[in-house]
């Protein structure tokens, strides 16, 4: 019986939260917490899926077309997208999916599962083109975001599918650049508060896009991607007062991300400087976009007091996790400080991306 084993990491966002839905770049990396998928051929025409971490099981007919799919049924949407790429199942498998990647913690467990599922199906049944990391990432983005008309971008799928530290251009002409293989001193802290993805993302996205629309009405050639922070005063007069903060946040966060890119491109980046940029980014997310909650605020403050260079909330907000850059000799102090305020914390390493074992 043919066996296939897949490992799929989580991700954390270093710079660029609430930017990818505007087509602006992000800097993110895969981390060494994983979803594992173990599959073995069976003698049926079924995918028999067990998810022991959440106590669920699922059976899917291998020839199911899924012309209609339930909201957020990513197993179904992945199969539907894969058919368009010439991946057509012709054999049943017994599949177990589990891992040490925490759920609803802001480290992209759902995207990691989708990437693992797609990587397995492509390994088992092939496609009409060469299977590459970028193909896996693209299919995962289509299956998770486009098929369900969700407000997120493509940072999660590309970070997990490609691995390393990536600068990702999330505009229509999607491109990426691997800028580092690692970042020392990374710590992830979990709040224990379930993140609120759809509502928070959708609201902030709508407000930012409305602000940009007001500018575009007056300046048809306007591009948020090519606008500098120093030009804010030139455009803010076209925007209603309640939307101005979201326009400023977009420009400021974009500026921070580009500064971080230049530092990370150096052979030996200044981690203290990157930490300062991370702190600036967090203040925008907290004070303007208002995506934090009290427990996150306490975790951030405690990490800084314990000696972290920089800390920020990760992802959509309303809970989830934080990421920290800390000096090597302060890592354990920072971990313990975060644990006192949140659910847990741990040092993470940059991972090489989803792969067949």
From TrEMBL:
Question: What GO molecular function annotations does the UniProt record carry, in alphabetical order?
Answer: ATP binding; galactokinase activity
Q: Does the keyword Kinase apply?
A: yes
GO CC entries: cytosol
Q: Does the keyword Thylakoid apply?
A: no
All residue ranges annotated as the GHMP kinase N-terminal domain in the record: 78-164
Pfam families to which the protein is assigned, alphabetical: GalKase_gal_bdg, GHMP_kinases_C, GHMP_kinases_N
| InterPro entries xrefs | Galactokinase, GalKase_N, GHMP_kinase_C_dom, GHMP_kinase_C_sf, GHMP_kinase_N_dom, Mevalonate/galactokinase, Ribosomal_Su5_D2-typ_SF, Ribsml_uS5_D2-typ_fold_subgr
Instruction: Supply the SUPFAM superfamilies for this chain.
Output: GHMP Kinase, C-terminal domain (SSF55060), Ribosomal protein S5 domain 2-like (SSF54211)
Q: Which part of the chain is the Galactokinase N-terminal domain? A: 7-36
> Per UniProt, which keywords does this protein have?
ATP-binding, Carbohydrate metabolism, Galactose metabolism, Kinase, Nucleotide-binding, Transferase
GO-annotated biological processes:
galactose metabolic process
Organism, as annotated: Aquimarina atlantica
Protein name as it appears in the record: Galactokinase
> To which protein family does this belong?
Belongs to the GHMP kinase family. GalK subfamily.
Q: Which residues form the GHMP kinase C-terminal domain?
A: 263-343
